[in-house]
Write a structure and sequence with these properties.
Length: about 240
């Protein structure tokens, strides 16, 4: 009897854990939005990507992969209708931010010790500066854009909104280092600017949304087509 009860509790615990994981993979996690984050790195992201926000962005995703340049993709309104777009910097913004942080710290230490900056001309900082610009103003942005039919834009807008409004804080958030963080956002009538994120989901509707988010840049660059976007929409519209 006791053994049977323990087995039942074990099965129940396994089921609950699996349900929690599945639920987390079906939902995004609320966040304050890439435009509102106070961390200095996000401020530099907004500064470098300022060109993107000079147009009427309907929806967007900020893609933050490990070891690759950041990107912003989405759909924006134009005089002729709507277009998918993707903006990519000429180098990794995080690397330039890392140089900025390292220089700030080394300058502080030099000031404390009454020595000249840099303290060590052969430090790793020199190597970082050899491979990446140390000035954010030297990072340029390339934007690709391609018209998207209004009906398809509306379908994408609906699933984007549904996933954002369904965002929940997970009981067991995913853990990891390398991977890709996706910050989704859009302006929603009656709610204002709504934002949520996910990190490298491998299943569920969160994975379906990230697949769609990764297909938008390809479409904007001319490598994808409408059929591909429609195919990726279907799991999110069920």
């Amino acid at each position: 009897m006791l053994y049977g009860m323990k087995s039942a509790l074990l099965l129940l615990g396994t089921f609950c854990a699996a349900t929690a994981i599945a639920s987390a993979q079906d939902q995004l996690t609320p966040d304050p939005g890439i435009l509102a984050e106070k961390h200095e790195y996000y401020a530099k992201l907004r500064e470098v990507f300022a060109e993107v926000y000079r147009s009427n962005v309907v929806l967007q995703v900020v893609l933050l992969p490990s070891f690759e340049p950041e990107e912003i993709a989405g759909i924006r309104e134009t005089d002729a209708g709507f277009e998918a777009f993707v903006a990519k910097p000429s180098s990794i913004i995080w690397e330039t931010y890392s140089i900025y942080e390292a220089e700030t710290e080394e300058q502080r230490r030099a000031d404390e010790q009454g020595k000249d900056f840099p303290l060590d001309p052969n430090s790793g900082l020199v190597e970082m500066k050899r491979n990446n610009p140390s000035d954010f103003r030297k990072i340029t942005i390339h934007i690709d854009a391609r018209p998207i039919p209004t009906q398809l834009k509306t379908r994408i807008e609906h699933v984007w909104q549904r996933m954002l409004l369904g965002a929940r804080h997970p009981v067991n958030p995913p853990n990891g280092t390398d991977g890709e963080t996706f910050h989704f956002s859009m302006w929603i009538y009656g709610r204002g600017f709504v934002s949520a994120q996910t990190w490298s989901p491998d299943r569920g509707k969160a994975r379906a949304l990230t697949d769609l988010a990764l297909a938008l840049p390809e479409y904007a660059r001319g490598a994808g087509d409408e059929k591909q976007l429609i195919k990726l929409l279907k799991p999110l519209e069920r």
